[in-house]
Every structure is written in C-alpha cells, then in structure tokens.
Amino acid sequence: MRTGAIEVVQGDITKEKVDAIVNAANTSLLGGGGVDGAIHRAAGPELVAECRTLGGCPTGEAKITRGYRLPARWVIHTVGPVWHGGKHHEDELLASCYRRSLEVAVENGARSVAFPAISTGAYGFPLEGATRIAVREVRAFLEKNPALGKVVFVCFDRYTHDCYTRALAEGA
Ligand code: ADP
C-alpha cells in the first residue's frame, strides 16, 4: 500500500534496499533476538564491532552505524520502551524513537528509511497503539522534511501489516 511517501510492506527488513534501516535494539546495542538478531546476522560481525564503540543507547534515542553486508548503507539503532502497562511514558518514548531515528537519518543524508514495528515483539507494546504512534510521527516528520523521500513500514507478519494499513487509512 502507498500513501504519499509512506509504504507498508510485509517482509524481512534486512532485505530492504533503502538508505537506512532502523533496528529495534536494546540499550546495550550489542545485539539481541527478533529483528535485532536478524539485522546483526545479515550485516556480519563488523556491525557489533562498531556498536561496541557507541557506549549503548538510552530508551527513546537513536544512534547510527554503517550497514556492512546489508543492502542498506546505514543502520539506525533505536531503543523502544518495554511495555509496563502504559503509564510509564511508553507512548512518548515510542514516539521519540521514530522522531529521533528520522532526525539521525536526515542528518546523515538518508532519503529513504525502513522501520520495523518497534517494541511490538519481545517488548510487548500493544500493536494497534504502536502503529498509530508510528504513522502519526512519520507523517508529521515527512511534512516538515521534504528531503526525506520515502519511509517504509516493514511488517514481519500479516496482522502487523493489516494494523499499519488501518492506521494509515484512519489518518492515525
Ligand atoms: P522489540 O524488542 O522492540 O519488541 P522485536 O524484534 O522483538 O523487538 O519485535 C519487533 C517487531 O519486529 C515484531 O513485529 C517482529 O515480528 C518484527 N521482526 C522480527 N524479525 C524481523 C525482520 N527480519 N524484519 C522485519 N521485522 C521483523
């Protein structure tokens, strides 16, 4: 599905041919399960070597590395909030992940960026709320940053894909 500069696709983010892919990392930035593990496996061991130089990353922030063996030139590592019921600033922190990732992307000259559904796997953020926040933040950013040409939401499964499609149709 296409809505302006936003696309939703079902697939594996490590295969995306965009300038930058976003990693749903943990605060250590030293690799983990889920999409983080897939990105490190596909990029090769040089990725964790560069990550070791970064000194971790706080929740809601983002740091950039090269993409090594990935088709993407850059990986932007962001740390989503762990869901603790919704009253621990989870919404604001997730919104910050999307904003900060896009700011870092644009600062480095990226014109196309792909996101996984940050925090909605092991970190337990309810998917519908997470997709609404993602769509809202990306739309707001695109309006203010014409240099960014395209943002892709890469969904690993059909249910996630359907949630994004609904959030886009609803205007989030
Ligand atoms: P978090 O710890 O932030 O919740 P996870 O990696 O557990 O991160 O899950 C985030 C989302 O990424 C989930 O929707 C999961 O299904 C998805 N995912 C896992 N592997 C991939 C992949 N290779 N490409 C795209 N999305 C993926």
Secondary structure layout:
Layout: E1 2-3, E2 6-10, E3 20-25, H1 34-43, H2 45-52, E4 62-66, E5 74-79, H3 90-107, E6 112-115, H4 127-144, E7 150-155, H5 158-170
Parallel strand pairs: 2-7, 3-5, 3-6, 6-7
Antiparallel strand pairs: 1-2, 4-5
Helix pairs in contact: 3-4, 4-5
This protein binds adenosine-5'-diphosphate (ADP).
Verbal overview:
With 172 residues, this protein is an alpha/beta fold. The chain is built from five helices and seven strands, in the order βββααββαβαβα. The chain has helices spanning 34-43, 45-52, 90-107, 127-144, 158-170, and strands spanning 2-3, 6-10, 20-25, 62-66, 74-79, 112-115, 150-155. The protein has a seven-stranded mixed sheet with strand order 1-2-7-6-3-5-4, with helices on both faces. The protein is globular. It binds adenosine-5'-diphosphate.
Find the structural class using helix and strand composition: alpha/beta
**Mean pLDDT score, rounded?**
96
Helix content: 25-40%
Portion of residues in beta strands equals 15-25%
Low-confidence stretches: none
Q: What is the terminal separation in angstroms? A: 15 Å
Q: Largest sheet, described in full? A: 7 strands, mixed
Which term fits the overall shape? globular
What oligomeric state is this?
single chain
Give me the side-by-side strand order of the main sheet.
1-2-7-6-3-5-4
How large, in whole angstroms, is the Cα Rg? 14 Å
**Continuous helix count:** 5
